[in-house]
Amino acid sequence: MLTGKRIILRAPEREDLKLFHKWQNDEEVMTLARSMPDHVKSMVSIEAEMEKDLKGEDPEVRRYMIQEKSSGKAMGWSSIRFHTWARRYHNADLGLCIGEKDKWGKGYGTEVTKLLLEEAFEQLNLHKVGWWTFAENKASIALAKKLGFKEEGRLQDQVFFNNQFHDSVVLGLLKSQYDKRPRR
Ligand SMILES: CC(C)(COP(=O)(O)OP(=O)(O)OC[C@H]1O[C@@H](n2cnc3c(N)ncnc32)[C@H](O)[C@@H]1OP(=O)(O)O)[C@@H](O)C(=O)NCCC(=O)NCCS
Question: Which of 67, 75, 160, 183 could join 100 in a cystine, given CB atoms 3.0 to 4.6 angstroms apart?
Answer without folding.
Answer: 75
